[in-house]
Structures are given as structure tokens and as C-alpha cells.
Predict the 3D structure of the following.
Amino acid sequence: MTSPPPTAEPPHEQLVTSSRKWTDHLSTRVAWVAHETRNLLPVAVRSLRMTLVLVVLSGIIFPLLVFAIGQAAFPAQANGSLVTNTQGRVIGSSLIGQQFSQPAYFHGRPSAVGYNAAGSGSSALGPTNPHLVSGNGSEVTVARGATPPPGATPVPGKPNTYYVPGSYLGVRSYANQFRKENGLACDTPLPSDIVTASGSGLDPDISVEAAYLQLNRVVAARKALGGQNATITVGRVMDLIDQHTTGRDLGFMGEPRVNVLDLNLALDALYRSPTGQK
């Protein structure tokens, strides 16, 4: 004879049993979390201590040490290689080029950013890019009778089409401009630095050859100013170029170069600064 099936628990007892099981499970989980926390807490504390030590070493002590060494051993370079005039006023840096336009000054390299130190950059044109020679301008076609874009020039043979120059005029334009302003023949060979923009657009130096090619123009412009500038000679300016020529780095890296700002300041120191802007 088979035994009767077990009698089911009343609903309220089932609830009590479920609650007891949940409470036991929760207690087990809480105990496990507490155990893991006790194990992880020392690791977290050690990690925090290590973080604080590294912050102090790399964020405070090391920068202060580098700053102290720089101020003690290389004060001029550490403070930006600043250049001051005879009145002690900061007028630039020997590391950042400036744009000189007066004929009585030596001129620097072309700049794709107009020597704007806040937005340095290059023309981003490689040696195989035709725009390196012709410039990064573009042709724009407008409706008949419409006003052409500012600074645009008509394109021959293309009605209502205009050429709008870009920030980089190209080797051909820079070469023509340099030869014209220095009174050079149209076939005069030019060094590459004076007809191309640098990678930063802020190169403070030019090649020695580029400085010599500007020599006659600078001397003639200074003589025309009269006064103390009338005593300037080609030989004296050639000496200034030689005095401000920096040789190859470590004797073999790069090419000899002339810092344009330093050279122009030396000219002003000897022959007085021209009136007006640079």
C-alpha cells in the first residue's frame, strides 16, 4: 500500500520559508562582500599612497628640478630666447621669425601662416605636388556681372573665372617677388629656403646666400635714408652677415644660417632704425 503524498505547506509557511532562504542568502553575500572588502582595502590604500608619491615626484619635484636646472644653466633658452632692444623692451625671440617688409631690412623666408606664432603651420605641399610651384590658390567661376572675390585676378581664356590666391603663393611667385625687390636678373639662381615656406612658418633663419642676395638692396635703402645710415658700406654689412652666421650644428648637421632678427637689430644698432614700421 502506497503512502499518501505529503501535504503541501500552507501559503503563510511557504512565505516564511522563502523569506528565511533569502535572508540566509543575503547574509552569505554580505559576509562575502565584507571579507573581500577587508582583503582589498589594504591594496587600495597602497595604491593611493603610490599615486600620491608619483604625483609629488613627477608633478612637483621633477618639474621644479628641471626648472631650476634650466634657470641656472640655460636662463636665456629656458625663458624663450627672448630678444630685447636698446631700451630693454622685449621685441621677439631668436627662435621665432618675424615678417620684415621695409627695404632697409633683411627679409626672412616665405610663411604659409604670415608668421603668426599663434597658428604655426606649413603649406603641407610635398615636392611632387604641382601647387608647390604654382601656389595653393584656386579658380572660382562667378555669374556674369557678379563681383569677383577680393584679391582675385581674371583667368585668361576663361570667362567669369578668377584665380583666388591661397596662403602659399608658390615657388614661382616667391622667386619672382624676391628677384624683383632685390633688383636681380630673372634667371638669377636662388637658394631653396628663400622661395619655400618652412614647416612651422616661423623659421627665424635664412641661408647665408639668401642674405648676400639682399645685400645691395639693404645698403641702397639705408643710404637713401640719409643721416647716419648714409655711412653704410657693402663691406661693413658683409662683415655683419659673417658675424651673425651660425655654422652647422655639431659641425655636420644642417647648413650655415643667419638669424634675420639679430642681423636687423645689428644694422639698427650701427645705423639707426628707419622711421616707421618694420
